Amino acid sequence: MLADSFGRIATDLRVSLTDRCNLRCAYCMPPDGLDWLAAPGLLTDDEVVRLVRVGVQRLGIREVRFTGGEPLLRRGLEGIIARTAALRPRPEISLTTNGIGLTRRAAALCAAGLDRINVSLDTLRPETFRKLARRDRLADVLDGLAAAAGAGLAPVKVNAVLMRDSNDDEAAPLLRFCLGHGYELRFIEQMPLDAQHGWKRADMVTAGEILAALGAEFTLTPDDPDRRGSAPAESFLVDGGPARVGVIASVTRPFCGTCDRVRLTADGQVRNCLFARTETDLRGPLRAGAGDAELAALWQRAVAPKLPGHGINDPSFLQPERPMSAIGG
Ligand code: SAM
Ligand code: SF4
Fold first, then answer.
1. Bridging pattern class, strands 234-238 and 244-248
2. How far is the CA of 24 from the centre of ligand 2 (A)?
3. Looking at residue 113, what DSSP letter applies?
4. Which of 32, 102, 120, 141 to mutate to test ligand 2, by most ligand atoms within 8 A of the CB atom?
5. Is the peptide bond before 323 cis (omega within 30 degrees of 0)?
6. Which terminus of the chain is less hemmed in, N or C, by CB atoms within 10 Å?
7. Which of 14, 17, 20, 25 to mutate for ligand 2's pocket (most ligand atoms within 8 Å of CB)?
């Protein structure tokens, strides 16, 4: 098991497959992008699958989410998913993506064994998308969402981050859109994880604001708390249900006490928290010939000292060196 000293058990592995991206979302990356990780440092497809296998077979990992950067930029994605799906016990397999390119790949991803998908969509206005993501790709994202649903992925979840004076008036329109298409919408509070360190608490659109904006148009009823488990999203029934909307209030209502996640970066570093300031290298030992038992032991030692909380609200908080795109969101 991957246990920490506070009794939490990590069962949900987030694997970043690349730090590269074809968008430049303002809350994530600077306009010119970043210095990408050098190719030789990236885990190969075989190395990714090997570490996922160690997690699943030796450490109790039950869910594997592939993310990035933009995971659809990883050519071997379908193969990695198929090999993950062949593991026993078979983990749940999910993907977080900006949706660009999904029209071409949704069916193959499904056939490979993908169970669930989250597509990020922050705005329905092409001009706002162009400013917020710094690329003119809204139509591609919307097509990608439709392709995911068409391929039979259910439920299709949509992640939205609201930014002050940009798309902060779109909470209700985004929910209306998602209800109309059968997508399940979750808002994520903006976190201090952008490479350019532009996050400001005073500018952040809070969960409270989002819920107030939605409440003006919809009747929201808190969902059964037992359904939440370790899920970060607080869930609400919309107009009596069965449709739901979620809010992930990472900053204003942290849920670190029930966190069950652990992360593997594209260059093979284990992180026990998005906000961790240390990492444990698995790539070096793996390439030096370490066996599965040794890798599992290193991984356990990486998770054990996980801190009780992310500390964003402490005066001494320091943002981690790696930005979200390089950790895997
Ligand atoms: N490129 C893919 C995408 O955008 O879905 C996967 C990686 S992205 C880092 C994963 C999720 O993190 C996205 O839903 C994105 O909106 C969210 N995200 C990125 N930076 C964030 C930040 N500073 N605060 C909150 N969420 C953020
Ligand atoms: Fe790319 Fe996702 Fe970051 Fe946007 S949030 S820049 S799509 S990695």
1. antiparallel
2. 6
3. T
4. 120
5. no
6. N
7. 25
Local structure of 297: helix, strand or coil: helix
Q: What one-letter code names the amino acid at 265?
A: T
Q: How many other CB atoms are found less than 10 A from the CB of residue 279?
A: 20
**What is the number of domains present in the chain?**
1
The pTM (predicted TM-score) of the whole model is 0.97
Determine, yes or no, domain membership for 218.
Answer: yes
Q: What is the domain-level CATH number for residue 147?
A: 3.20.20.70
Domain membership of residue 69 (yes or no) is yes
In tens digits, the chain (329 residues) has pLDDT values of 999 999 999 999 999 999 999 999 999 999 999 999 999 999 999 999 999 999 999 999 999 999 999 999 999 999 999 999 999 999 999 999 999 999 999 999 999 999 999 999 999 999 999 999 999 999 999 999 999 999 999 999 999 999 999 999 999 999 999 999 999 999 999 999 888 888 999 899 999 999 999 999 999 999 987 777 777 889 999 999 999 999 999 999 988 999 999 999 999 999 999 999 999 999 999 999 999 999 999 999 999 999 989 989 888 888 888 888 889 88
Instruction: Please check whether residue 7 lies inside any domain of the structure.
Output: no
Range of the domain at 43: 12-327
- Does 6 reside within a domain? no
